[in-house]
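In response to the reviewer comment on reproducibility (Comment 2.3), we provide here a single inverse folding case reported in full, input and output, so that an independent group could reproduce the run without further information from us. The structure tokens appear first.
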């Protein structure tokens, strides 16, 4: 009744189709074998054009895994010359996130599930992690997962290999770190025809896992 009074669209869980006289809540609906996510999908056609005022009114506040550094639902590149410490910095960020440390350099950290695609230097990377754990006096890195098999993520079949591995282990990552780009990409990074399939694959991953950053 209150939903109707707003004049806005609303969702009402239907009566039990096997017993029309019985009402259902969300839990009953799922236990009856129905997909709750489909129930809340809008039947309204998607508008392709909106006014700037509407866009501003619907603008969401930015949210972060590490305040001001790693936003949610974002695709990012950590860029710098060889040997400048990119992996060192990335691991520090990711381990703070998975281990549940509350701050990184004074910036608030959200505890998260991390998937690290380590295309090269696995043993050196593990040595760094061990040193990091000793430095921070931490014995448990939390939900930090590692994959050391290089894949061509521009290829839909190899992307599906990654997705299948994620699903099999029920990981549901918050952030995926690809290190290095060259071990998971085939082609010329300066040609759009080569990079387009890779970024389409990244978009597919982000659509699969809500809030995922890469």
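Designed residues, in position order:
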């Amino acid at each position: 009744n209150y939903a109707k009074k707003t004049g806005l669209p609303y969702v009402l869980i239907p009566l039990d189709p096997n017993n029309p006289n019985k009402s259902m809540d969300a839990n009953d609906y799922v236990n009856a074998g129905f997909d709750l996510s489909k129930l809340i999908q809008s039947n309204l056609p998607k508008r392709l054009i909106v006014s700037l005022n509407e866009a501003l009114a619907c603008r969401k506040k930015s949210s972060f895994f590490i305040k001001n550094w790693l936003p949610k639902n974002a695709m990012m590149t950590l860029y710098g010359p060889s040997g400048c410490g990119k992996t060192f910095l990335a691991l520090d960020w990711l381990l703070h996130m998975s281990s549940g440390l509350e701050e990184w350099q004074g910036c608030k950290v959200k505890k998260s599930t991390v998937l690290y695609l380590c295309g090269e230097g696995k043993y050196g990377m593990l040595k760094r992690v061990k040193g990091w754990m000793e430095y921070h006096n931490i014995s448990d890195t939390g939900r930090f997962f590692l994959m050391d098999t290089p894949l061509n993520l521009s290829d839909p079949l190899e992307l599906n290999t990654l997705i299948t591995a994620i699903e099999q282990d029920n990981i549901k990552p918050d952030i995926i770190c690809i290190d290095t780009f060259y071990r998971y990409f085939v082609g010329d990074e300066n040609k759009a025809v080569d990079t387009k399939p890779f970024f389409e694959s990244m978009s597919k991953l982000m659509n699969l896992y809500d809030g995922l950053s890469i």
